[in-house]
Amino acid sequence: MERVTIFIIRAVLSFVFGTLLMRLFYPGKGIVYSAALGLLLLGLSYLSAYWRHRKTK
Predict the structure, then answer these.
(1) Quick check: helix, strand or coil at residue 52?
(2) C-alpha closest to that of 40 among 29, 32, 28
(3) Domain range spanning residue 45?
(4) What is the rounded CA–CA span in Å between residue 25 and residue 18?
(5) pLDDT at 57
(6) How many domains does one find in the chain?
(7) What are the C-alpha distances in Å from 48 to residues 14, 18, 38, 55?
(8) What is the mean pLDDT of each run of 10 residues along the chain (57 residues)?
C-alpha cells in the first residue's frame, strides 16, 4: 500500500476509536478531547510501527 493510504486508514481508525473511547469513559467531554485522543492514538501507531521495523533490521 502507499504511504498516503496507510496514513488515511490509521487516521480514520484513530479518530473513530478515540471518539468511541471518550464517549464510553468520559461522556461529558467535548469533541476536542476526542480529537486529541485520536491524535495520540495516531502518534502511538506510528511510534509502534517505527519500533517494530527498527528491531527487525
Answers:
(1) helix
(2) 32
(3) 3-56
(4) 11
(5) 58
(6) 1
(7) 14, 17, 15, 11
(8) 92 95 93 94 94 75
